[in-house]
Amino acid sequence: MLKENKYDIIVCGGGPSGVAAAIAAARRGAKTLLIERYGFCGGMSTSALVNPWSGQEYVDPETNKRGSLIEGVFKEVVLKMHTNGGFGTSLAPSAFDEELLKYIYDTLLSDAGVHVRYHSYVQSVQKEGDRIASIGIASKEGIEVFCAQNFIDCTGDADVAAMAGVPFEVGRQEDGLTQAMTVSFRMGNVDKEDMIATGNFRAARALVEPYFQKALSKGELHYPYRNFIHFYDYPRPNILHFNMTRITEVSGLSAIDLTKAEIEGRRQAFLIGNWLIKSTPWFKNAYIEKIACQVGVRETRHIKGLYTITSEDIIKGQKFTDGIARSRYFIDIHNPTGAIDIQQIPGEKGAVKPNFGPPPGDYYEIPFRSLLNNVCPNVIVPCRALSATHEAAAAIRVMATMHAIGEAAGIAVAESVRQNTDVLSISGEWVRKQIPYLSKSPDLDKIWNSNA
Ligand SMILES: Cc1cc2nc3c(=O)[nH]c(=O)nc-3n(C[C@H](O)[C@H](O)[C@H](O)COP(=O)(O)OP(=O)(O)OC[C@H]3O[C@@H](n4cnc5c(N)ncnc54)[C@H](O)[C@@H]3O)c2cc1C
């Protein structure tokens, strides 16, 4: 075995959770390797063009001032994005430029001393007893083996944990179907002036919505995939971001299904994009500027951890002594079988049932135990595949929350290296104490109200 292939910690997957985990672990002195299949970090935010950031949002009930429930590495990223002019617009205060984000992640990882290996796919796990001894990586160099004391599975799909025999469930309980997939796209050269004048994204969408509904009802447009126009502002002139395509009854764990989803998603992107150009005044000079290089996958595996987060925890605003992240993002299920989302009230487009998130001003916490399992003690799963039901995962999965959970896991795993033990032995109560902002009121820094 090559000496340079030995690390204290290997983080598999460079999405929001993996980046934050690797930075936190390396800053605590652990020799950390991050392995990512693409040539950049960001996961869904960069490869699938997912935008804007959610999970941090907090609105002070008394002053109506926007704030954040999440600080740490996430806030560092946001501050750097803001300084470099790639964060926030008046219509979408947490929208970001993903090209800048790739660069900022590279810089933060490098400054923290993380070894990064792009273009490398984790394809196997070798176990000694119940522990992972090494992982196999496929790349242009063939198959290589990398060893570590502890592994952080941030693949989004719990690939490493699953290969190590950690039990998991897929999708919803009744039939195993997962949330719909989406191929995100951007429209360029959009006349955004009227939209910006409305002052918020719901009002901006409402300008386009009647055109969409009329075209559907008159049969001029056949678009049975979404029942309302769903776009966000983007922090660059004349560009809008569309989360509008929908591919149902496909699995993110099947290459055949993923292929089908890519092709169908691109078809839907051109269908709706060309209709917008032909039929609405704001888009008459527009064009499809970019289509995500991979279909957006919202859900695959959920590990069976030491604690499984439920929808009751989300709705009640449950707190835990080992809570390591907090959020008030709602149960946001993109219908696994159709156009109308589960949480939407039929006939009230865009309306959300009020009890699908914690009470106003409140938040729920994510317990450290939901990242751990009792089958393989040296792997932790702090990504969207953590232990949660289909419903609860639909709230936790968003990207600011993923930064927070990943950071907590990085802290925990670095401590397990220091103690020469497995991450399963680390106390969640101790991890919580390492994240001081969790015991404070939400952050009302002006950054959450300012626009690029
Ligand atoms: C269409 C869509 C819209 C969404 N909208 C929003 C939104 O508006 N706001 C929001 O905050 N969140 C949104 N989300 C949710 C959010 O994007 C994801 O849940 C979040 O990115 C998950 O973070 P993660 O770190 O767990 O995984 P990911 O972001 O999926 O990152 C996983 C990383 O691991 C890498 N990887 C996977 N397997 C391997 C392997 N075997 N070997 C090597 N590398 C591997 C991947 O390339 C990727 O970089 C949306 C998701 C989708 C799909």
Summarize the structure.
The protein has 12 helices and 17 strands. It has helices at residues 16-27, 44-47, 72-83, 98-112, 159-163, 193-198, 201-217, 255-279, 311-316, 390-396, 399-418, 428-433; strands at residues 6-12, 32-35, 57-59, 66-68, 115-117, 121-128, 131-139, 142-153, 168-170, 185-188, 231-233, 240-242, 287-291, 301-303, 323-327, 364-367, 379-380.
Distance between the termini: 49 Å
What percentage of residues falls in helices of 4 or more residues?
Answer: 25-40%
Radius of gyration, in Å, reads: 21 Å
Number of domains: 2
Structural class: alpha/beta
What characteristic shape results from the CA principal axes? globular
Identify the notable features of this structure and list them briefly:
30% helix; 452 residues; 4-stranded antiparallel sheet; alpha/beta; binds flavin-adenine dinucleotide; 17 strands
Could you please describe the fold and organization of this structure?
With 452 residues, the chain is an alpha/beta fold. It has two domains: 288 residues, FAD/NAD(P)-binding domain (3-Layer(bba) Sandwich); 107 residues. 30% of the residues lie in helices and 18% in strands. Strands 1, 2, 5, 6, 7, 8 and 17 form a seven-stranded mixed β-sheet that branches. α1 runs parallel beside α4. The site of flavin-adenine dinucleotide has 40 residues, from α1, α2, β6 and α11. Flavin-adenine dinucleotide binds next to α1, α2, β6 and α11.
